[in-house]
Amino acid sequence: MAFRLMRLHGYDISPSVFEHFEKDGKFFAFVGQSTQAVTGMYNLNRASQVSFPGEDVLERAARFSHEFLRRRQAEGTICDKWIIAKDLPGEVEYTLDFPWYASLPRVEARFYIEQYGGEDDIWIGKTLYRMPLVNNNIYLELAKRDFNRCQVQHQLEWHGLQKWFTENGLEAFGVTSGDVLRTYFLAAASIFEPNRATERLAWARVSVLANVISKYLRSDLSGNKVLEQFMHDSLYEGETDVSRLNGDAKEEILVGALEKLVDLMAQEAPGDGTMYVNNLLRCADAEKNNAIIRHMDKKIQLDMQELAQNILQTDDDEPSSKTKQTFLSVVKSCYYATNCPSDILDKHVSKVIFEHVI
């Protein structure tokens, strides 16, 4: 746990310490241990998820802990000799199904609120005891209130996004309200803080328009050449004059939405609003090749490790560091959306956006 926390907060920490807890291809918590504990393997697995390229000991730890936990899952023996917890099987299941690079912060928080036992969790040593600074009901109540407070704002933002989507006539391109909801969920589950509403809504609107452009390019061949030329000019020559796209009715709707987005971004965000249009078009261009992602799991995992190394290392330039963290959030949301089954994703949408924590 300490290794994971320090690495996620930018400390330069070596994984070589784990070599002291490995023998003959197996990992243990202390010398002479006869059997592995579920919580020990659970925390080892979580630590191994933030590995960097070339860290072989963490790869071995990930493989060993994953196999151990899956085996205990199959046997129905996810219980521990160190703690009597409310929902240890649920914690293990979430970590195995959604490792760090596929876990969205608000989804993880929502599930952990349900799994956290508060003062009812009991630790096991030579006697049974509680740890009030680790497990107490005050933490649980604060977490519930914070989650519900943020959720109210997210619901208001979702209603506003629906209105924006309808007023711009974007249904005409085959994008549904459900598509828009899932797009907003990815943004809200990644950047959830109330004071980051501008970033969150910019992410959602740009993603919706990227989806619209992608569908239009695939379905309406008459506008293909014009729009692809516009995208090329925007990406590589900095030309973002959308007025030259005017053509049929659908193109006029798209032009109007793009123009309004540029104006909105210029008002809400610092800097040049046209920057967001360039990002939009890059997303739309990448969307056309989205199917390839599903066939590149191993390479993507290695790329995620390299990306994590570049972003998690300490950066003295605070604005640059924040930009990197936002970029990492976007990439993680893409990984999550690509690998999460649609029925599970919809359940997560409901839990994060609509279901009140009781």
Overview of the structural elements:
The structure is a single chain. With 358 residues, the protein is mainly α. 63% of the residues lie in helices and 3% in strands. The protein is built from 14 helices and five strands. It has a three-stranded antiparallel beta sheet with strand order 3-4-5, with no helix packed on it. The protein has a two-stranded antiparallel sheet with strand order 1-2.
Quick recap:
The chain has 358 residues and is mainly alpha-helical. It has helices at residues 2-8, 38-48, 56-75, 88-97, 105-115, 137-167, 177-190, 197-219, 224-237, 249-268, 274-287, 297-312, 318-339, 342-354; strands spanning 22-23, 26-27, 83-84, 122-124, 128-129.
Blueprint of the fold:
Blueprint: H1 2-8, E1 22-23, E2 26-27, H2 38-48, H3 56-75, E3 83-84, H4 88-97, H5 105-115, E4 122-124, E5 128-129, H6 137-167, H7 177-190, H8 197-219, H9 224-237, H10 249-268, H11 274-287, H12 297-312, H13 318-339, H14 342-354
Antiparallel strand pairs: 1-2, 3-4, 4-5
Helix pairs in contact: 2-3, 2-4, 3-4, 4-5, 6-7, 7-8, 7-14, 8-10, 8-11, 12-13
